[in-house]
Structure formats: C-alpha cells, structure tokens
Design brief:
Length: 451
C-alpha cells in the first residue's frame, strides 16, 4: 500500500533511515529501490548515459526528520521538499480569538490532509465577528469557515465591539422609526435613525433619556456605545403629551398620546425592581412627585419620570443574641437613616462598626445615604460587680469582677452623681479583678463603666 507522505531529497550524501527509491536524473534511467536504513552511501552511474544528479524519494517521512545532508563536489547544496499532496498526513489547525474577550472559537485540532476542516467563531455579548485571518491576511469573512486541509494553519477570529441602537416612536400612534441597519454597529461607525410621522402628526425631535439630541427626522451620528432613541411626534389637531423614563432599566411610563386641548390628562410611572420613582420633570424642572400625575392638557408637553437605584442599608448584631436593631432597609441617595440599637438584658451597647472600623458610639446613629452600607451593632456583656467583707477585723470590703471583661473601668463617688475613675489599686486574683476598700471611709458608691 502506498505511504501517505513523501519527502524528496536532491543530493549525493545523506544520513537517514528510510525506505527509499533512487532515480538518477536522466530520462532513460529507471529507479532502483532500497529498503531499510540509509547511511552515507555512494551513487554510481552505470547506465551508460550522462547524469546530472539524482533524487532520493523517501516514503512515510517528514522533511523535519532529515537531520543531516552533505554538500559534495559539484552536486551543490541538497534541496529537501515535502510532498503533502497525498491524503492522510496529520496536520494541526489552531483557531483563536482576538481580542480574547471578543468571543470564542471552535474547530482547533489535528486533521488529515485531504479532508475538510471547519472553524467557527462565536461573538460574546457586545462584540461582532469581523473576519478570519492567517498571518495578518484575511482568509474568510464568514464566521463559519470551511477549507481543505493541506498543511498546518494558525487562524485568528477577529472581533469588533458591537453596539445596539434602538429607536421607537412616542406616542406609538404618531408615527414609526427605523435604523439604517438591523445588525450591531461597530465603534465609530456612522448610524442613521429615521422618523416617519403618520397622517395628522408632525415630527418634533429625537430624545435620549428625556434629553433632546436632534430636531432632524433623519438623525446621523458616530456610534460610541449602546443608545435608546425616541422619536417624538405631535398631533396636528390638538396637543401631544409625551412621557419617557429617565433610564430604561429604572421603570416604565404610560399616559402619553394625543389630547384635545383642555382635556384632563394623567400620566403614570411604575418603577422596576431595584429602583424607586422620584419625580416627574419637564425641561429639567420638577413638576410632580406622585407617580400618577394629573394636569390639564393645554399645550404639548414632554414629561420625564425620574427613577433612581435603591440603596441598601444592612445591619447585624454582634453577637446575634446581643440585642435588636431598627432603621435598616432600602433608601435612595439623599435620604436620612436613623439606626437604633437596643441591648438585651445583661448586655450593653458597644458601638457601631463598618468593615471592622468604629463609626459611632451612639445607640442611635444617623447619616445621609450615599451608597450601600453594611453596619454592625456591637453588644458587650455587663460584668457583675460583687462586694464581700474582707478578713475578720480588717475593716475592709472587697470589690471583685471578672478579669476577662476588658475595657471596663471602676468609678466611684460619694453622692451617686459626681462619678470619677477610681484610683485604687486593682489586683487580679485567679480570674477576678479585686479592689480593697476600707470601711472607715464612710459612704462610697462604685460602678463599672464602658466607654
């Protein structure tokens, strides 16, 4: 059976193990076949014809396996040629994406010559496939590229940033819109949005998030990102009320449309999850704070429902059974929050912390919301202060409390009002802090306090 690959060497000397056939370069000379290892041999022209060199053909051998050739006499430098025209030779097909964030590729692997290989490029969200390249040269503009395998190939799928431009009419009965293409746009590519008013309606302007961006019905611009455009139409026979949300993901609006001059109109705003309705604005000025806004339709109006993200103020008690907390929840930026901590019996409030850092020692902590926050109300066990008589005849009283309650300070006074830190010596005995108080000093009051 013929071998699937051949390597030809035009030379006189070479070192290689192979099965080969030898043919002198003369039209009347027939090749002879040698089997086994080929190593440093001589070729003799005994055909009786003039010969100008010879060719050695080795089957089942790659050109890279020829490790040594020898330039001898006038035959010149040997020329090595690998013949891949025969099917069945393993070849490597490598496919990759550029940039790597642009998408994924499939089809890399080992293929035999003579078969077809297919590589597929799939863009990630926000990207579009551009072309297949090999060594900087474009080989296909199709995302699915099929070719016959003739050798090793390194293919790169090129992806470009892709942006979506959406256009819609307001009100929907006022007209229609279209973009110049249905496919995503590349960065800096020119896009054109067109507005077509229906009979009895006129085009007013293009807006984006409630802001006028063009008064031309055919609006062209360079693409720099995703955009949501609204073509606003006005009713020729009356007034037109147009509504839109400040952000498309914040919520929806309703109630826009044509009205007869003098009609009572109502527009409504409904927030999406994670957002809150704030107010209605017109030309940037507040006109209402109720989601349902009532007014007399006596002029064309373009109203924007302002939505804002909800911010989360989360609280936790440490330890969990140390007490209770009130005031947490969802808020919007600018709100005032009042968090209050209530210690359970036998414990005291020890301060508010955030990410392990102290933020307040007050049981009620008030602040203005500017972002999400996670706060911890810390509670500490109140140590028990015990008084016991000293040794008989010593006229002393021994005060004691647990030694492992760090941060507590012994205070004393004579009137239960003028409390001062006690300057008496504290001696630790076993697991108790102790202070000796002479009973001859008269009435004294003692307590433990924590900063």
């Amino acid at each position: 059976m013929p071998s699937p690959m051949k390597t030809a060497i035009q030379t006189k000397w070479f070192t290689l193990g192979a099965i080969c056939s030898l043919a002198l370069w003369s039209p009347s000379v027939r090749a002879s076949i040698a089997y086994g290892s080929i190593n440093n041999f001589d070729t003799v022209n005994d055909t009786g014809h003039e010969c100008h060199g010879f060719e050695i053909e080795m089957e089942d051998c790659r050109s890279t396996e020829v490790t040594y050739t020898f330039n001898y006499n006038h035959y010149g430098t040997p020329k090595i040629t690998e013949d891949n025209s025969v099917a069945g030779i393993p070849k490597s097909i490598t496919a990759s994406a550029s940039p790597t964030t642009g998408g994924m590729t499939a089809g890399s692997g080992s293929y035999l010559t003579g078969v077809s290989a297919t590589v597929v490029a799939t863009p990630n969200p926000g990207y579009a496939f551009s072309k297949w390249q090999e060594g900087g040269t474009t080989v296909s503009n199709a995302a699915t590229y099929t070719f016959d395998v003739t050798g090793d190939r390194t293919l790169v799928a090129k992806f470009n940033e892709a942006f979506v431009i959406m256009a819609s009419p307001a009100p929907a009965i006022g007209g229609s819109t279209e973009m110049d293409t249905l496919t995503p746009y590349k960065a800096n590519e020119k896009a054109t949005a067109k507005a077509f008013p229906d009979d009895g309606w006129s085009f007013a302007n293009w807006t984006e998030n409630g802001t006028v961006v063009s008064t031309d019905s055919s609006y062209s611009f360079n693409v720099t990102g995703n955009r949501t455009l609204v073509a606003n139409f006005t009713w020729d026979a009356g007034v037109t009320i147009t509504t839109s949300p400040s952000t498309a993901i914040g919520g929806t609006t309703s109630g826009d449309g044509p009205y007869t001059t003098g009609d009572e109109a109502m527009v409504s705003a409904v927030e999406n999850g994670g957002y809150a309705f704030v107010k209605w604005t017109e030309n940037g000025l507040e006109v209402g704070t109720d989601p349902d806004y009532f007014f007399t339709a006596d002029a064309n109006r373009r109203l924007v429902a302002q939505f804002t993200p909800l911010l989360h103020i989360m609280v936790a008690a440490a330890p969990p059974a140390g007490g209770t907390i009130s005031g947490d929840g969802q808020f919007i930026a600018g709100d005032t929050v009042d968090l209050t901590a209530f210690a359970n019996p036998g414990l005291a409030f020890g301060g508010w912390t955030e990410d392990g850092n102290p933020v307040s020692d007050a049981e009620t902590f008030s602040f203005t919301v500017a972002g999400n926050r996670s706060l911890v109300a810390n509670f500490i066990t109140i140590p028990r202060l015990v008084a016991t008589p000293g040794a008989a005849g010593s006229n002393t009283l021994i005060l004691s409390w647990p030694a492992d309650t760090a941060g507590w300070t012994l205070q004393e006074c004579a009137d239960c009002a003028s409390w001062l830190p006690s300057g008496r010596a504290v001696i630790t005995v076993d697991d108790q802090n102790t202070v000796t108080v002479p009973t001859t000093e008269g009435h004294r009051f003692f307590r433990l306090t924590h900063p």
